[in-house]
Write a structure and sequence with these properties.
Layout lengths: L2 H41 L16 E11 L9 E5 L5 E5 L15 E7 L2 E6 L5 E3 L7 H28 L4 H31 L5 H26 L35
Organism: Streptomyces siamensis
Protein name: DUF3592 domain-containing protein
Keywords: Membrane, Transmembrane, Transmembrane helix
């Protein structure tokens, strides 16, 4: 398999990854509105006047006893806890992250679970700390927005770079420019993920995500266009010869100095 075939295979791989990522990004974008509506419904839900018999849109605070808890740090498993009602009936809950509550849970601890639509959506410990479970609606709009920005920005630039690379595989400068576009797309996606982490860690408002990510992405777009144009023009070409060329003739020797004395006479 030649170098051209390898280049085509890489571009096809980038193309497939770009299409799949775009599909995920579109799904995340379409889910933002629903996540916002669900979080808004949760925040405005009234307290239940009595223990709900069926799944209800009101909020009920239920006391639980911790039977076991595992943060699963360093594992690709969601943190989880086994809770028990006063009747002894078990209730299994999972969390999106380990802190601040589930990581401190110990057997026989008393906690309060907030039940909404038949699910424990939040757990509060004796110190007043609270944490959303995997069923909790708070934070999902930000996750959907961050995922949409990451996937769409990477997917679009990777798609452009992959298609460009497929049509320009025999042109070294064009192929370099396409590669620059693709890798800048990776930077845009990573910037969205890092922005989402920063927003969640600092409890910033949702609008901080597009504001910060947009600033970083603007700089990446400027550098991407600059480097791509430079690659097409040949400004990034390595002008150093790969092998030594034919040796140049040696420079002529300097003229000999006169050996005679004043007036051109030879001193003897």
């Amino acid at each position: 398999m030649g170098a051209g075939d390898n280049s085509s295979a890489r571009n096809v791989m980038w193309l497939l990854v770009a299409v799949a990522t775009l599909a995920v990004g579109v799904g995340s974008a379409l889910g933002i509105r629903g996540a916002l509506e669900r979080e808004r419904e949760f925040r405005t839900a009234p307290a239940c006047t009595s223990v709900p018999v069926h799944a209800s849109g009101c909020l009920w605070k239920q006391k639980f006893t911790v039977r076991s808890a595992d943060a699963h740090r360093g594992k690709r498993v969601s943190p989880e806890a086994q809770l028990a009602l006063p009747s002894g009936k078990p209730w299994h809950v999972t969390f999106r992250k380990a802190d601040p509550v589930v990581s401190e849970m110990k057997p026989d601890d008393k906690v309060v679970g907030l039940i909404w639509h038949g699910q424990v959506v939040e757990v509060r410990d004796a110190d007043g700390r609270r944490q959303q479970t995997s069923e909790g609606p708070v934070g999902w709009p930000e996750d959907r927005l961050g995922g949409a920005l990451a996937c769409l920005s990477f997917g679009l630039t990777a798609l452009v770079g992959a298609v460009w690379g497929l049509f320009a595989r025999d042109n070294r400068r064009q192929a370099t420019a396409a590669r620059i576009v693709r890798w800048h797309g990776v930077g845009m996606g990573v910037a969205a993920i890092l922005t989402l982490w920063a927003q969640a860690a600092n409890d910033w408002p949702m609008w901080a995500i597009p504001a910060i990510w947009g600033s970083v992405t603007g700089l990446l777009l400027v550098t991407m266009v600059g480097f791509a144009v430079g690659a097409v023009r040949g400004d990034l070409d390595d002008e150093t010869p790969s092998s030594p060329g034919p040796s140049s003739p040696p420079p002529p020797p300097p003229p000999a100095l006169p050996t005679g004395g004043p007036g051109g006479r030879t001193t003897g």
